[in-house]
Design brief:
- It is built from twelve helices and four strands.
- It has one domain.
- The two termini are 38 Å apart.
- The chain is globular, with a radius of gyration of 19 Å.
- Helix 3 runs parallel beside helix 10, helix 4 runs parallel beside helix 9 and helix 5 runs antiparallel to helix 11.
- With 304 residues, the chain is mainly alpha-helical.
Length: 304
Protein backbone atom coordinates (compact mmCIF):
# COMPACT_ATOMS: atom_id res chain seq x y z
CA UNK A 1 0.00 0.00 0.00
CA UNK A 2 1.84 3.08 -1.30
CA UNK A 3 1.33 6.37 0.56
CA UNK A 4 2.48 9.81 -0.53
CA UNK A 5 4.52 11.84 2.00
CA UNK A 6 3.82 15.55 1.34
CA UNK A 7 6.92 17.13 2.93
CA UNK A 8 9.37 14.41 1.82
CA UNK A 9 7.72 14.45 -1.65
CA UNK A 10 8.07 10.68 -2.15
CA UNK A 11 5.73 7.66 -2.14
CA UNK A 12 6.57 4.84 0.30
CA UNK A 13 4.91 1.58 1.35
CA UNK A 14 2.89 2.26 4.54
CA UNK A 15 3.44 -1.26 5.94
CA UNK A 16 7.20 -0.90 5.48
CA UNK A 17 7.13 2.28 7.61
CA UNK A 18 4.96 0.61 10.29
CA UNK A 19 7.38 -2.33 10.37
CA UNK A 20 10.44 -0.06 10.68
CA UNK A 21 8.73 1.88 13.49
CA UNK A 22 7.92 -1.34 15.33
CA UNK A 23 11.46 -2.71 15.00
CA UNK A 24 13.02 0.51 16.30
CA UNK A 25 10.44 0.64 19.12
CA UNK A 26 11.57 -2.82 20.26
CA UNK A 27 15.19 -1.58 20.36
CA UNK A 28 14.08 1.51 22.28
CA UNK A 29 12.49 -0.58 25.02
CA UNK A 30 15.35 -3.09 25.18
CA UNK A 31 18.36 -0.77 25.19
CA UNK A 32 17.12 2.63 26.41
CA UNK A 33 17.97 4.26 23.10
CA UNK A 34 15.50 6.35 21.13
CA UNK A 35 16.36 4.23 18.10
CA UNK A 36 16.92 7.25 15.85
CA UNK A 37 20.51 6.23 15.13
CA UNK A 38 19.09 3.18 13.34
CA UNK A 39 15.81 4.63 12.02
CA UNK A 40 17.24 7.79 10.44
CA UNK A 41 19.76 5.86 8.25
CA UNK A 42 16.98 3.35 7.38
CA UNK A 43 14.86 6.27 6.17
CA UNK A 44 17.81 7.43 4.02
CA UNK A 45 17.98 3.92 2.53
CA UNK A 46 14.28 3.96 1.47
CA UNK A 47 14.62 7.35 -0.23
CA UNK A 48 13.55 9.92 2.40
CA UNK A 49 15.62 13.17 2.10
CA UNK A 50 18.07 13.47 5.07
CA UNK A 51 16.73 16.87 6.27
CA UNK A 52 13.16 15.45 6.48
CA UNK A 53 14.34 12.14 8.00
CA UNK A 54 16.22 13.95 10.81
CA UNK A 55 13.37 16.30 11.79
CA UNK A 56 10.60 13.68 11.53
CA UNK A 57 12.52 10.95 13.30
CA UNK A 58 13.03 13.22 16.34
CA UNK A 59 9.23 13.33 16.52
CA UNK A 60 8.84 9.53 16.40
CA UNK A 61 11.45 9.04 19.14
CA UNK A 62 9.28 11.08 21.55
CA UNK A 63 6.48 8.53 21.29
CA UNK A 64 8.51 5.32 21.48
CA UNK A 65 10.59 6.72 24.37
CA UNK A 66 7.45 7.82 26.26
CA UNK A 67 6.00 4.34 25.84
CA UNK A 68 9.26 2.82 27.14
CA UNK A 69 9.50 5.21 30.11
CA UNK A 70 6.01 4.27 31.34
CA UNK A 71 7.10 0.62 31.52
CA UNK A 72 10.30 1.59 33.41
CA UNK A 73 8.46 3.91 35.83
CA UNK A 74 6.27 0.98 36.84
CA UNK A 75 9.49 -0.88 37.74
CA UNK A 76 10.90 2.19 39.58
CA UNK A 77 14.04 2.05 37.38
CA UNK A 78 14.13 5.76 36.46
CA UNK A 79 16.41 8.22 38.29
CA UNK A 80 14.31 11.38 37.87
CA UNK A 81 16.86 13.67 39.50
CA UNK A 82 19.68 12.51 37.20
CA UNK A 83 17.27 12.67 34.26
CA UNK A 84 16.50 16.33 35.04
CA UNK A 85 20.20 17.32 35.13
CA UNK A 86 20.76 15.56 31.78
CA UNK A 87 17.63 17.23 30.43
CA UNK A 88 18.73 20.80 31.25
CA UNK A 89 21.99 20.20 29.37
CA UNK A 90 20.06 18.52 26.55
CA UNK A 91 17.73 21.48 25.93
CA UNK A 92 20.69 23.89 25.68
CA UNK A 93 22.46 21.49 23.28
CA UNK A 94 19.34 21.04 21.11
CA UNK A 95 18.95 24.82 20.65
CA UNK A 96 22.62 25.10 19.58
CA UNK A 97 22.30 22.08 17.27
CA UNK A 98 19.25 23.43 15.42
CA UNK A 99 21.10 26.73 14.80
CA UNK A 100 24.03 24.80 13.30
CA UNK A 101 21.67 22.62 11.24
CA UNK A 102 19.93 25.74 9.80
CA UNK A 103 23.26 27.34 8.88
CA UNK A 104 24.44 24.20 7.05
CA UNK A 105 21.04 23.77 5.36
CA UNK A 106 21.34 27.30 3.97
CA UNK A 107 24.79 26.35 2.60
CA UNK A 108 23.38 23.17 1.02
CA UNK A 109 25.77 20.92 2.99
CA UNK A 110 23.37 19.39 5.51
CA UNK A 111 22.84 15.97 3.82
CA UNK A 112 26.55 15.21 3.64
CA UNK A 113 27.16 16.44 7.21
CA UNK A 114 24.37 14.25 8.64
CA UNK A 115 25.68 11.12 6.93
CA UNK A 116 29.31 11.80 7.90
CA UNK A 117 28.26 12.37 11.54
CA UNK A 118 26.55 8.99 11.51
CA UNK A 119 29.53 7.12 10.09
CA UNK A 120 31.98 8.69 12.58
CA UNK A 121 29.86 8.35 15.74
CA UNK A 122 28.41 4.93 15.02
CA UNK A 123 31.86 3.58 14.12
CA UNK A 124 33.55 4.83 17.30
CA UNK A 125 30.75 3.98 19.73
CA UNK A 126 29.92 0.61 18.19
CA UNK A 127 33.57 -0.49 18.36
CA UNK A 128 34.07 0.67 21.98
CA UNK A 129 30.84 -0.96 23.17
CA UNK A 130 31.57 -4.21 21.33
CA UNK A 131 35.07 -4.58 22.84
CA UNK A 132 33.91 -3.66 26.34
CA UNK A 133 30.89 -6.00 26.26
CA UNK A 134 33.00 -8.85 24.92
CA UNK A 135 35.48 -8.38 27.80
CA UNK A 136 32.63 -8.30 30.33
CA UNK A 137 31.16 -11.55 28.95
CA UNK A 138 34.59 -13.27 28.99
CA UNK A 139 35.16 -12.18 32.61
CA UNK A 140 31.69 -13.39 33.66
CA UNK A 141 32.27 -16.77 31.97
CA UNK A 142 35.63 -17.16 33.72
CA UNK A 143 33.92 -16.52 37.07
CA UNK A 144 35.40 -13.06 37.73
CA UNK A 145 32.84 -10.35 38.47
CA UNK A 146 33.10 -7.53 35.89
CA UNK A 147 34.78 -4.57 37.59
CA UNK A 148 32.74 -1.37 37.75
CA UNK A 149 34.82 1.48 36.47
CA UNK A 150 35.00 4.45 38.84
CA UNK A 151 36.61 7.52 37.34
CA UNK A 152 38.20 9.49 40.16
CA UNK A 153 38.31 12.81 38.35
CA UNK A 154 34.49 12.78 38.05
CA UNK A 155 34.23 12.37 41.81
CA UNK A 156 36.65 15.25 42.48
CA UNK A 157 34.60 17.89 40.64
CA UNK A 158 32.58 20.55 42.54
CA UNK A 159 28.74 21.04 42.72
CA UNK A 160 28.07 17.56 44.06
CA UNK A 161 24.57 16.19 44.33
CA UNK A 162 22.98 13.01 45.72
CA UNK A 163 21.28 10.75 43.18
CA UNK A 164 19.52 8.25 45.44
CA UNK A 165 17.99 5.98 42.79
CA UNK A 166 21.43 5.50 41.20
CA UNK A 167 23.21 5.33 44.56
CA UNK A 168 25.62 8.11 43.52
CA UNK A 169 27.03 11.29 45.04
CA UNK A 170 28.75 13.10 42.17
CA UNK A 171 29.18 16.52 40.55
CA UNK A 172 26.34 17.72 38.28
CA UNK A 173 28.89 18.99 35.71
CA UNK A 174 29.58 15.66 33.84
CA UNK A 175 25.87 14.73 33.41
CA UNK A 176 25.02 18.30 32.31
CA UNK A 177 27.83 18.23 29.69
CA UNK A 178 26.72 14.79 28.46
CA UNK A 179 23.24 16.32 28.10
CA UNK A 180 24.52 19.30 26.05
CA UNK A 181 26.47 17.03 23.71
CA UNK A 182 23.50 14.68 23.22
CA UNK A 183 21.18 17.66 22.59
CA UNK A 184 23.43 18.89 19.75
CA UNK A 185 23.42 15.40 18.21
CA UNK A 186 19.62 15.16 18.56
CA UNK A 187 19.23 18.29 16.44
CA UNK A 188 21.80 17.41 13.76
CA UNK A 189 21.30 13.66 13.48
CA UNK A 190 17.62 13.17 14.41
CA UNK A 191 18.58 10.87 17.28
CA UNK A 192 17.62 10.66 20.92
CA UNK A 193 21.32 10.25 21.65
CA UNK A 194 20.81 7.14 23.76
CA UNK A 195 23.61 5.34 21.89
CA UNK A 196 26.02 7.90 23.40
CA UNK A 197 24.17 8.61 26.62
CA UNK A 198 23.79 4.99 27.75
CA UNK A 199 27.55 4.19 27.57
CA UNK A 200 28.37 7.61 29.14
CA UNK A 201 26.00 6.97 32.06
CA UNK A 202 27.45 3.51 32.69
CA UNK A 203 31.18 4.18 32.23
CA UNK A 204 31.60 7.88 32.95
CA UNK A 205 29.02 8.46 35.70
CA UNK A 206 29.11 4.91 37.10
CA UNK A 207 25.32 4.44 37.12
CA UNK A 208 23.86 0.91 37.55
CA UNK A 209 22.73 -0.54 34.18
CA UNK A 210 19.19 -1.28 35.41
CA UNK A 211 18.57 2.46 36.11
CA UNK A 212 20.34 3.74 32.98
CA UNK A 213 17.77 2.61 30.40
CA UNK A 214 14.72 4.29 31.98
CA UNK A 215 16.64 7.47 32.89
CA UNK A 216 18.01 7.79 29.36
CA UNK A 217 14.52 7.42 27.86
CA UNK A 218 13.09 10.02 30.29
CA UNK A 219 15.61 12.63 29.11
CA UNK A 220 15.22 11.69 25.44
CA UNK A 221 11.45 12.45 25.45
CA UNK A 222 11.88 16.12 26.28
CA UNK A 223 15.01 16.81 24.23
CA UNK A 224 13.62 15.23 21.05
CA UNK A 225 10.24 16.91 21.61
CA UNK A 226 11.97 20.30 21.86
CA UNK A 227 14.12 19.49 18.78
CA UNK A 228 11.02 18.54 16.74
CA UNK A 229 9.35 21.82 17.69
CA UNK A 230 12.41 23.83 16.61
CA UNK A 231 12.74 21.94 13.30
CA UNK A 232 9.02 22.29 12.56
CA UNK A 233 8.99 26.05 13.21
CA UNK A 234 12.33 26.99 11.59
CA UNK A 235 12.88 24.40 8.81
CA UNK A 236 9.35 23.11 8.08
CA UNK A 237 10.87 19.65 7.53
CA UNK A 238 8.62 17.56 9.83
CA UNK A 239 6.46 15.20 7.71
CA UNK A 240 3.34 14.48 9.79
CA UNK A 241 2.19 11.49 7.70
CA UNK A 242 5.60 9.83 8.01
CA UNK A 243 5.76 10.64 11.73
CA UNK A 244 2.34 9.08 12.48
CA UNK A 245 3.15 5.80 10.71
CA UNK A 246 6.53 5.47 12.47
CA UNK A 247 4.93 6.49 15.76
CA UNK A 248 2.23 3.79 15.75
CA UNK A 249 4.82 1.08 15.08
CA UNK A 250 7.24 2.56 17.63
CA UNK A 251 4.80 2.68 20.56
CA UNK A 252 3.78 -0.97 20.12
CA UNK A 253 7.41 -2.06 19.66
CA UNK A 254 8.67 -0.24 22.79
CA UNK A 255 6.35 -2.22 25.08
CA UNK A 256 7.55 -5.52 23.59
CA UNK A 257 11.21 -4.41 23.80
CA UNK A 258 10.95 -3.49 27.49
CA UNK A 259 9.72 -7.02 28.29
CA UNK A 260 12.54 -8.65 26.26
CA UNK A 261 15.17 -6.32 27.82
CA UNK A 262 14.16 -7.29 31.35
CA UNK A 263 14.97 -10.95 30.61
CA UNK A 264 18.39 -10.60 28.99
CA UNK A 265 21.70 -10.07 30.89
CA UNK A 266 23.13 -6.52 30.59
CA UNK A 267 26.35 -7.66 28.82
CA UNK A 268 24.41 -9.54 26.15
CA UNK A 269 22.14 -6.52 25.58
CA UNK A 270 25.15 -4.25 25.09
CA UNK A 271 26.92 -6.57 22.63
CA UNK A 272 23.71 -6.91 20.58
CA UNK A 273 23.35 -3.14 20.44
CA UNK A 274 27.02 -2.72 19.48
CA UNK A 275 26.61 -5.22 16.63
CA UNK A 276 23.60 -3.33 15.23
CA UNK A 277 25.41 0.02 15.47
CA UNK A 278 28.38 -1.34 13.51
CA UNK A 279 26.14 -2.87 10.83
CA UNK A 280 24.36 0.45 10.15
CA UNK A 281 27.69 2.31 10.20
CA UNK A 282 29.13 -0.09 7.60
CA UNK A 283 26.14 0.33 5.26
CA UNK A 284 26.26 4.15 5.51
CA UNK A 285 30.02 4.26 4.91
CA UNK A 286 29.59 1.93 1.92
CA UNK A 287 26.89 4.21 0.44
CA UNK A 288 29.00 7.33 0.93
CA UNK A 289 32.08 5.76 -0.68
CA UNK A 290 30.41 3.80 -3.48
CA UNK A 291 27.52 6.00 -4.59
CA UNK A 292 28.72 9.22 -6.20
CA UNK A 293 25.28 10.91 -5.86
CA UNK A 294 26.72 13.49 -3.42
CA UNK A 295 29.32 14.58 -5.98
CA UNK A 296 26.69 15.08 -8.66
CA UNK A 297 24.33 16.99 -6.39
CA UNK A 298 27.14 19.25 -5.16
CA UNK A 299 28.34 19.77 -8.75
CA UNK A 300 24.82 20.67 -9.84
CA UNK A 301 24.43 23.10 -6.96
CA UNK A 302 27.69 24.78 -7.92
CA UNK A 303 26.63 25.12 -11.54
CA UNK A 304 23.71 27.47 -10.87
Amino acid sequence: MQIYLPIAEVSVNAFLLLGLGGMVGVLSGMFGVGGGFLMTPLLFFIGIPPAVAVATEANQIVASSFSGVLAHLRRKSVDLRMGTVLLIGGLIGAALGVQLFNTLKAMGQVDLLVKLCYVVFLGIIGSLMFVESLNAIIKTRSGKPPARKRHNWVHNLPFKMKFRTSGLYISVIPPALVGVFVGILAAIMGVGGGFIMVPAMIYLLGMPTKVVVGTSLFQIIFVTGFTTLLHATTNFTVDVVLAVLLLVGGVIGAQIGTKIGARLPAEQLRILLAGMVLLVCGKLAFDLLVMPSELYSLGAAGGH
